[in-house]
């Protein structure tokens, strides 16, 4: 084939369709329950093959061309992502388990539905960088000790050790207070 400058060049060729295979599986949590709405992302390939979402039974179905890929399964919230190598050379099944996120003390995250409970005794607390102390209705066990006093800060956290209303972006835990704290709005 000769290509000449400033002239159109025409080439006839045939494309062979990619060989596609079904890839299916089930996503469960560490208690064996199906994970609905988990995102299954395939790296190394573009649309329309790049992602699928699990159904109410935790099942998913992809149709992929032959090749090697990395599949990532993510559900967000309390479940940690999982990645796995995937070689597609025929129909494939890839089942995965998403484990609950746990801290170094073994405490696990859990999302639970609950009814709204109307507060009856609002705290006399307002402003910026302010805090107040209160006695909870029970001793609150938290990483060992059971606390009988909680300090509530207007910056959106509870501390069990010191009244502290400072707000700064730093790592948790830290050598500076507040530690032994709950940060419900951090994220």
The H-and-E topology, N to C, reads as EEEEEEEEEEEEEE
**Would you identify the CATH H-level superfamily of the largest domain?**
Carboxypeptidase-like, regulatory domain
User: Ends: how far apart?
Assistant: 60 Å
Share of helix, binned: under 10%
In the predicted model, the low-confidence regions spanning at least 5 consecutive residues are none
CATH topology of the largest domain: Immunoglobulin-like
The CATH class of the largest domain turns out to be: Mainly Beta
Average of the residue pLDDT scores? 87
Give a topology summary.
Elements: E1 20-29, E2 39-43, E3 51-53, E4 59-65, E5 67-74, E6 82-88, E7 92-93, E8 96-98, E9 131-134, E10 140-141, E11 146-147, E12 150-153, E13 157-159, E14 181-182
How would you describe the overall organization of this protein?
There is one protein chain. By secondary structure, this protein is an all-beta fold. It folds into two domains: 20-98, Carboxypeptidase-like, regulatory domain (Immunoglobulin-like, Sandwich); 123-187, no CATH class. The chain contains no helices and 14 strands. The chain has strands at residues 20-29, 39-43, 51-53, 59-65, 67-74, 82-88, 92-93, 96-98, 131-134, 140-141, 146-147, 150-153, 157-159, 181-182. Strands 1, 4, 7 and 8 form a four-stranded mixed sheet that branches. The chain has a four-stranded antiparallel sheet with strand order 3-2-5-6, with no helix packed on it. Strands 9-12-13-14 form a four-stranded antiparallel sheet, with no helix packed on it.
């Amino acid at each position: 084939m000769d290509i000449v400058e400033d002239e159109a060049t025409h080439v006839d060729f045939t494309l062979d369709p990619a060989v596609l295979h079904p890839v299916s599986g089930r996503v469960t949590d560490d208690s064996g329950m199906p994970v609905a709405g988990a995102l299954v992302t395939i790296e190394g390939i573009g649309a329309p093959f790049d992602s699928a979402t699990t159904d109410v039974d935790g099942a998913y179905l992809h149709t992929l061309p032959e090749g090697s890929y990395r599949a990532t399964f993510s559900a967000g919230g309390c479940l940690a992502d999982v990645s796995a190598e995937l070689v597609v050379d025929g129909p494939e099944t890839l089942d995965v388990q998403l484990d609950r996120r746990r801290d170094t003390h073994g405490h696990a995250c859990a999302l639970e539905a609950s009814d709204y409970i109307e507060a009856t005794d609002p705290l006399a607390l307002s402003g910026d960088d302010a805090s107040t102390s209160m006695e909870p209705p029970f001793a609150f066990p938290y990483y060992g000790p059971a606390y009988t006093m909680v300090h509530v800060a207007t910056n959106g956290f509870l501390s069990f050790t010191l009244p502290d209303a400072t707000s700064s972006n730093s790592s948790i835990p830290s050598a500076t207070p507040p530690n032994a704290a709950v940060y419900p709005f951090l994220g």
